[in-house]
Known about the structure:
The protein is of the alpha+beta class. It is built from 2 helices and 6 strands, in the order E-H-E-H-E-E-E-E. The chain starts with a strand and ends with a strand.
Amino acid sequence: MAEKLIIYTTPNCSACDKALADLTAEGVDFEERNVMKDKRWYDEVLRYSITVPVIIREGRVEYGWKGNIGCAIA
């Protein structure tokens, strides 16, 4: 069974919104972690990047969505 995709997001981030919409349309099983709602998620995403979206998929870290870097969080 494939590992669930994790996507770190923030509100009002157009790249995050597009990534969420595309993943939903594709039927991808994912867990959204809005870094502004939980300090643990904020701390987690900072291990990877200072911008969102950050996607963790099958042990790989992906930054941005389809060539678009989203919003800075730090």
